[in-house]
Amino acid sequence: DAKTTQPNSMESNEEEPVHLPCNHSTISGTDYIHWYRQLPSQGPEYVIHGLTSNVNNRMASLAIAEDRKSSTLILHRATLRDAAVYYCILRGSPRGKLIFGQGTELSVKP
Amino acid sequence: KAGVTQTPRYLIKTRGQQVTLSCSPISGHRSVSWYQQTPGQGLQFLFEYFSETQRNKGNFPGRFSGRQFSNSRSEMNVSTLELGDSALYLCASSNDRGLTGELFFGEGSRLTVL
Prior knowledge:
The structure holds 2 protein chains of 2 kinds.
Chain A: E1 9-13, E2 18-23, E3 32-38, E4 45-50, E5 55-56, E6 61-64, E7 70-75, E8 84-91, E9 104-109
Parallel strand pairs in A: 1-9
Antiparallel strand pairs in A: 2-7, 3-4, 3-8, 5-6, 6-7, 8-9
Chain B: E1 5-7, E2 10-13, E3 19-24, E4 31-38, E5 42-50, E6 53-57, E7 64-68, E8 74-78, E9 87-94, E10 104-105, E11 109-113
Parallel strand pairs in B: 2-11
Antiparallel strand pairs in B: 1-3, 3-8, 4-5, 4-9, 5-6, 7-8, 9-10, 9-11
C-alpha cells in the first residue's frame, strides 16, 4: 500500500488560511488523493479528493503537485470548528479500503 | 437522509467474552467497511462487505469477523476478547462509486475490555 507522510501537528489562527501538506512519493498512476478529517468524538468525514488537477469545494481546496508526489489541503479561512485531525489518504485498488496514516492534528487559536 | 448508525455506542466486556457490533448504512449504500481506532495504532482497516460478500480484508486475526445482510446492515463480531481489543470501532458506508466514492462514517462503538 502506498503511504503518506504528514506533519504530526500544526497550529493556525482563526480566520487565517491553513496549508496542510502531504507527501506521497510512492503514489501510483491510478491512486486518488483523498482527505478526511476527524473532529473530536466523531467518526472521520470526507473533505475532498483529486487525481491530477487542483480541486475546490465548499469546504476546502486541494492543490496537487505536477509530479503528484505531494499535495496540500487548503482551508481558506480557518474557524474553531476546523480543529481536527486531518488525514491524507491514497485510494487505489482495492477500492473499498482506506489506509489511514497518523494524520495532522490541527489546532485553531481564536 | 439518516446517517450511518452504529449500536451500541459504548460497551464494557471482560477478557474471553465475545461482542457483536451493529452498523446500519445510509439507505441505498451497499458497501460497508469497518475500522478499528486505537491511540497507538490509529485507524486500521478491518474488512469491507458489498452485497453480502466480504470484498476486502485487513490484517486482523480470525477472532475478528463480520457479515452483511440482504438489507446492507452489517455486524462485526470479536470472539475471545483481549485487553488490546479495547478501541473505537467505526463503520463506514459508501455508494461504491469506485475510487472516487465518499465514505460516510458512523460515530463508532467504543469497546472497553477489562
